[in-house]
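Appendix C: a fully annotated inverse folding record. The material below is reproduced so that readers can follow the format used throughout the book. The structure is listed first as tokens, followed by the designed sequence.
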């Protein structure tokens, strides 16, 4: 059987070993990890340098071959997998995995796109610094993917999302030109902030090959607590109290309903942390570069909150094992939902002050639309990002439930819009929300986005059919 000429030409750039056309070898690159999208590809190409990425894109642009950039393949909206047509080329960046430089004096780290988030964290820690982006998939997800999707995570409250953690980028444009924007400057007013075009663009405007990341002082002390509360309004009150009493030391503030605790306990080997059951829980963590004072601050915070009402009980981790056990309740929550049947998931952002009322109204609307469904709103209350997932009614057929995905979406996203929120907080648009974006985005904003796309990728070869 004659080899595809595209594979032959790409192999001349990256080497025969890294231009993959064998179906079995390509398989892991073609499916989204939840199985929502299963695509086909002409081949998978794995360049090992920026120069090779440049040559691949120049060739693809000249030939009109569509390219799908991919990092750790942990995305949740289908942006990183090809369509079912079989004519696209997957550009995997996972061979580009060098930490080029760690500069403690300027508090920066230069990492290539294929460096995993965990390795970036470890490189920072080795220099007595912190890279604060934190995700459950940090052992697999990559810096390129994190920036391409503008990842969030559990520390956005204190440090911001991925966009806030990058100073400079190296990007290969659709025609193969290389933009060297790897600056370490905290202030640079020489024109447009080009890097923020590419952060969050999901590989549709250019391919990020390296980044200058911001580092921070490494915490000397972290104190973690889990609180049982009456309702989300009490959680919001606790958040305000925590900010007032601990300021920037509040680095995590995660909201979890009782249903989520039960799922993690029943399916993930977690232990119910408090003696009694409570309608809602908050995982709160304080961090400081100082090595003392946080335990007293946490005790004062929880004491004041319990005295004021709303917080019914709390436990403070007194060892690393206890801290890990509390975090496990939160980090295994998404996986635990799979054992309960179908789950229709939403990644939304809301004005923080409106979240309690939003949850109350949306839960009621969902019950009316589908009696017995089990809403599971959880996540980053501290920055207004909820993963508003809805688990199927007990005993309902899973396929029948998932067949009503659009109906449930309309309820959650309709109320999100009414409350001034966003349909995507940290997962991106990809394929999953592409049509929905056109319905909710300001028309002028969409026109500007299309104009930028047409300017940077006039032939439409970069991740076609994603975002726009």
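Designed amino acids, in order:
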């Amino acid at each position: 059987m004659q080899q595809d000429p595209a594979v032959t030409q790409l192999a001349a750039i990256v080497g025969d070993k890294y231009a993959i056309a064998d179906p079995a070898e390509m398989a892991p690159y073609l499916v989204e990890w939840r199985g929502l999208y299963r695509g086909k590809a002409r081949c998978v190409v794995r360049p090992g340098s920026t120069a090779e990425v440049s040559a691949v894109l120049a060739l693809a642009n000249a030939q009109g071959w569509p390219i799908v950039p991919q990092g750790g393949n942990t995305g949740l909206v289908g942006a990183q997998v090809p369509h079912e047509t079989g004519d696209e080329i997957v550009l995997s960046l996972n061979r580009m995995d060098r930490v080029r430089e760690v500069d403690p004096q300027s508090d920066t780290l230069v990492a290539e796109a294929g460096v995993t988030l965990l390795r970036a964290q470890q490189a920072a820690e080795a220099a007595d610094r912190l890279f604060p982006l934190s995700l459950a998939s940090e052992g697999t997800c990559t810096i390129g993917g994190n920036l391409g999707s503008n990842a969030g995570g559990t520390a956005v409250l204190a440090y911001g999302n991925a966009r806030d953690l990058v100073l400079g980028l190296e990007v290969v444009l659709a025609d193969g030109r290389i933009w060297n924007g790897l600056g370490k400057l905290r202030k640079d007013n020489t024109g447009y902030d080009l890097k923020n075009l590419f952060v969050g663009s999901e590989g549709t405007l250019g391919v990020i090959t390296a980044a200058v990341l911001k580092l921070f002082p490494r915490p000397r002390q972290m104190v973690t607590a889990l609180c049982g509360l009456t309702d989300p309004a009490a959680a919001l009150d606790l958040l305000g109290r925590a900010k007032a009493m601990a300021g920037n030391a509040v680095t995590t503030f995660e909201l979890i309903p009782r249903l989520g605790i039960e799922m993690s306990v029943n399916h993930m080997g977690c232990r119910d942390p408090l003696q009694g059951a409570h309608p809602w829980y908050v995982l709160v963590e304080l961090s400081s570069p100082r090595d003392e004072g946080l335990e007293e601050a946490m005790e004062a915070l929880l004491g004041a909150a319990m005295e004021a009402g709303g917080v019914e009980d709390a436990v403070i981790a007194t060892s690393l094992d206890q801290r890990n056990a509390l975090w496990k309740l939160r980090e295994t929550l998404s996986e635990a939902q799979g054992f309960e049947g179908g789950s229709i998931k939403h990644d939304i952002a809301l004005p923080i002050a409106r979240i309690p009322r939003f949850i109350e109204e949306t839960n009621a609307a969902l019950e009316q639309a589908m009696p017995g469904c089990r809403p599971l709103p959880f996540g980053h209350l501290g920055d207004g990002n909820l993963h508003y997932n809805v688990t199927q009614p007990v005993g309902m057929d899973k396929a029948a439930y998932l067949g009503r995905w659009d109906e449930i979406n309309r309820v959650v996203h309709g109320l999100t819009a009414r409350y001034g929120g966003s349909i995507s907080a940290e997962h991106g648009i990809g394929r999953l929300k592409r049509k929905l974006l056109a319905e909710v985005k300001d028309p002028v904003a969409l026109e500007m986005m299309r104009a930028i796309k047409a300017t940077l990728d006039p032939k439409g070869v970069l991740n076609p059919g994603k975002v726009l």
